[in-house]
Amino acid sequence: MEIFLKILLVLFAVGLISVVLLQKGKSAGLSGAISGGAEHLFGKTKARGLDLFLQRLTVGLAVGFFVLSLIVAYVVKV
């Protein structure tokens, strides 16, 4: 069980890394990060198609990775 969970955790990590690398950059530099964050916060830019899918997949993989990390830490400790 422990080995299976660790393999699953590695798969989630590799999947999360690859999905993040597949996404295109939203803006460049510090000024772009500030204005891009404001636009994202207030909803001026809406993601469509592949960008939306990759964004949702990133969130799902990140949540799964976090939960699975906690589970693996508990199983290894016990």
> What separation lies between the terminal Cα atoms?
12 Å
Oligomer: single chain
Show unreliable segments: none
Work out the helix count. 3
What fraction, in percent, of the residue positions are helical? over 70%
Bulk shape: elongated
The radius of gyration is: 16 Å
- Work out the strand percent: under 5%
Reported for the largest beta sheet, the result is: none
Q: Give the ordered list of helices and strands.
A: HHH
Q: Tally the beta strands.
A: 0
What would the average pLDDT be, to the nearest integer? 84
Question: Could you name the key traits of this structure?
Answer:
78 residues; mainly alpha; 0% strand
Write the layout of secondary structure elements.
Blueprint: H1 2-22, H2 29-42, H3 50-77
Helix pairs in contact: 1-3
Structure notes:
The chain is mainly α. It is 81% helix and 0% strand. The protein contains three helices and no strands. It has helices spanning 2-22, 29-42, 50-77. Helix 1 (2-22) packs antiparallel against helix 3. The model has no long low-confidence stretch (mean pLDDT 84).
Give a summary of the structure in a few sentences.
With 78 residues, this protein is mainly α.
